[in-house]
Design brief:
The chain is elongated and about 80 Å long. Helix content is about 35%, strand content about 25%. With about 425 residues, it is of the alpha+beta class. The chain has two domains: about 5-220 and about 340-425, Aminopeptidase; about 225-340, 2-Layer Sandwich (Alpha-Beta Plaits). A hairpin with a 7-residue loop joins strand 18 (about 395) and strand 19 (about 405). Strands 1, 2, 3, 6, 7, 8, 15, 16 and 17 form a nine-stranded mixed β-sheet that branches. It contains 13 helices and 19 strands.
Length: about 425
Amino acid sequence: MRYIYTSLILLLLCPSYGQDVRTMLQDSYKTEIQDLVKKQAILSAFDFIEQDSRRTLEEHIYLTEIPAPPFMEDERAAAFKAMLEDLAVDSVWIDEVGNVLGLVKGTEREKTIAVDGHLDTVFPEGTDVSVKIKNDTLFAPGVSDDTRALAMLTCMVRALKKTGTKMKHDVLFIGSVGEEGLGDLRGVKEIFSERGPRIDSWISIDGGTIGRVNIKGLGSYRYRVTFKGPGGHSWGAFGLVNPHHALGDAIRLFVDEADQFTSYGDRTSYNVGRIGGGTSVNSIPFESWMEIDMRSVNPLRLDTLEQKLYASVNKAVAKQNELKRMGEDLTVDIDKIGNRPSGELSADLPLIQRAMASTAYFGKLPELTRGSTNSNIPISLGIPAVTIGRGGVGAFAHSLDEWWLDKEAYKAIQLAYLLMVSEAGLAR
């Protein structure tokens, strides 16, 4: 395989792309990547990765068909750990929360670079995750988000072993838990806790095609609000506080406030995603609950929106208690069930420059994006981190109709491999 910068040059000359893109990518890093891909170790690895496509696809299917519901990633973690052990990495272990970590030691060992794909999917226990293949397209829940990344990691390790490539610094290959939904990034939070290994650079692979270079964390708060009352018959106990009525009032009050607040300033969103409670149409419910998601590029605006939520809920509770004709007061619990920090990194950081230069090498314009991924945690801590795409073509992530097609997907693995080696340093 041989790649050149011709496509990038054409892209950068096109006036439809912003001036900042043309100036952010520094010549020194373009030269670094151009020099690196001339090395026989990289050329051999690129050839191997392309030739290994069939085995990578088989492992992709194998892992997809191992269920990994939220908080139930153990079976897939055990399989991924066994795959790393079979590849004879220097050490493999599962940490306290269930992350799989495989260490490839460097020759100098002064830094540690992590390459991550998350183990979990959004789908609940009992979901059929068997892979159906139609015209070379894979259909299965979780087939692209993020199971493809795990297969990419094992291919990258095989490329290292097959070519005998040594890097200066340690690389940790990680299958992380808890990236999706109420998992609240618990896996990567553990990795960056005091108990975790020291990580100097973080590379996540999660969704999207070649071109994505995510360096901005989209922060979010998530809440579960539970209203509680005595409950009773809709006729015989009429006059008791009604949790459902309070919930409806709280939503109305919050939406009125939140809609006005989010109509100006830094982009901020809100969503009441789930509601529940009650036993029957003719029963006053004893409990009502709702789950709320808020996101913003500005953490201060999340704090303000949180205050508006509390105020709206407390006002709805007070009103319902004023309306009661008998019985106990309505109570409420507001639990924060998710906290994903936001943050931004400078495009001048070496890791990000190398990600942009590696992306450009494959003829794609680097797109610096913002998202909610495992990289949120290191980004919020100021640790160099990027999330790059898993390649191929796919759609309908987080749905039962999710699909993925192996359309030159090996290039995404080559890109990830190139970025990893450039950041870890090729040993002489």
